[in-house]
Amino acid sequence: xxxxxxxxxxxxxxxxxxxxxxxxxxxxxxxxxxxxxxxxxxxxxxxxxxxxxxxxxxxxxxxxxxxxxxxxxxxxxxxxxxxxxxxxxxxxxxxxxxxxxxxxxxxxxxxxxxxxxxxxxxxxxxxxxxxxxxxxxxxxxxxxxxxxxxxxxxxxxxxxxxxxxxxxxxxxxxxxxxxxxxxxxxxxxxxxxxxxxxxxxxxxxxxxxxxxxxxxxxxxxxxxxxxxxxxxxxxxxxxxxxxxxxxxxxxxxxxxxxxxxxxxxxxxxxxxxxxxxxxxxxxxxxxxxxxxxxxxxxxxxxxxxxxxxxxxxxxxxxxxxxxxxxxxxxxxxxxxxxxxxxxxxxxxxx
Length: 350
Ligand code: NAD
What we know:
The protein has helices spanning about 15-25, 30-45, 115-135, 150-160, 175-180, 195-200, 245-250, 260-265, 280-285, 305-320, 340-345; strands at about 10-15, 55-60, 60-70, 75-80, 95-100, 110-115, 140-145, 165-170, 190, 205-210, 215-220, 230, 240-245, 250-255, 275-280, 295-300, 325-330. By secondary structure, it is α/β, with parallel strands linked by helices. An eight-stranded parallel beta sheet has the order 9-8-7-10-12-16-14-15. Strands 2-3-4-5-6-1-17 form a seven-stranded mixed beta sheet. A two-stranded parallel ribbon has the order 11-13. It has two domains: about 10-115 and about 305-345, ornithine cyclodeaminase, domain 1 (2-Layer Sandwich), CATH 3.30.1780.10; about 125-305, Rossmann fold (3-Layer(aba) Sandwich). The protein starts with 10 loop residues before the first strand and ends in a 6-residue tail after the last helix. It is globular and about 75 Å long. α2 (about 30-45) packs across α3 (about 115-135), α2 (about 30-45) packs across α4 and α3 (about 115-135) packs across α4.
């Protein structure tokens, strides 16, 4: 497939409506699995990517971030926000869009909504990490924080790890009711819990996905027993964490990209030289993931640009297969590349 722009330099644009259609055509779980396969491939080629911590613009109420990365063929960036107070105003905590471009020409080859795609890729990343870190034959997950990301997380763990039971808790019971209703036909056994302590009962995987702009304690030290895998997603910004610090001293911690996670992840609570393992080293077999049944593993997830690159790469391929996009007149196309002014005259008033 050529990455070159069309003759008229039109850029495929995947709207929210197209993304919804694409997800239904492929199936949520198949799409998560496809994105996870791309992430796994791209993490195996870790050295081939330009990497930088995302560029964040903080305000008292939230953050706006740009997440760029590139290999030798493709460049990608995502624009994403995180505003925990937004839901009280009828707005989402996280919205995003992103772009994929051809390194050879610098021309964009895809512009896409990424709010849905972020939920899919974050779920894919969680399940991929859990595949290497969670106890073998895990059947039950606690899902604490039942907002926008939650259903995707549960379906990913079902599809990729064979999780059968989900134990839901949210400080807002309406969020739990929404999540339970959305998962009612999933084949998962859904248990609605009245406290985080109840939610973790019998769970081998503890996923925290809450949104609050503070150092919260969603899991306290005594809630994390031997052998569990903690999938901590919601702590992804300076001053925004979910785990009691003591857990970080008992767990083996796995991260995406340390220069970003040290600033944004749960490990912002501990010393800068606190030992962590980069997940790509586990995926390439350079380092062991889970060693034994008693080990506590923690995926300190913040979301890294390569995951969005992998997701956009997936969508780019599917858009070519399905045609689910608009052609966007995003790029100037002068007849003579140096005659931009001449192109402007096409629209001159008669
Ligand atoms: P959301 O606002 O839709 O849902 C968050 C839920 O957390 C809400 O239902 C809220 O009631 C609940 N909550 C808040 N405080 C709680 C507490 N103390 N106990 C239990 N529940 C609590 O947000 P979302 O889009 O689902 O995102 C959740 C978090 O995940 C955000 O902080 C976001 O920044 C983060 N996130 C991380 C990644 C990543 O790659 N790591 C990707 C996407 C989102």
